[in-house]
Structures are given as structure tokens and as C-alpha cells.
Input
Amino acid sequence: MATNRQYEMTRRFLDKYKSQISAGEPVDIQMRDVDTFEAVTARALLSEEALEGSDTLWIKDLQENRLPKPWHVKVLELLDDDRWVTSMPPIF
Output
């Protein structure tokens, strides 16, 4: 079920996992809660189209500008921060 939250992450992540996202596969991501500024590490589905039970995901470019249309994120599982891949470039 959606929590009506808003998250943000950089476009760089989308580019790195484009094939998995396009195939509708879950990906492990780290995003920032827009209201609390806390990092959230999760296994989630991402889509440009609305997903049942999804929240808003704002995509930012490298200059920190939001893209005009938000994406959608459906969190499947919250992950421990230490499971996050340290080789992944910063996403926000």
C-alpha cells in the first residue's frame, strides 16, 4: 500500500539499471525521503507509469534540478543500510 510519501534520487541511478527497470524487475536502491531528508535503502519497483500502491519518486539531474514529471516507486522490502553496495555512485 502506498504511504503517500515523496522520495528523490538522481538520474544516474536510472541510467545504470535501465534494463532491469524497463523489464519491471525490482532493484536495490537508496533514495531520500523528501520530508525527512533521511536515506531509505529498499528493494523496489520503479516506473514512469503509476504502479498500484506506489509513492512519488522525483528524479534529479546532476545540477539537482527535478525532472518535470515524477516517477513512481513501490517499496517491496526495506533493506539495512550496510547491505547497500558501497561501489554505487551517490544517488542524491
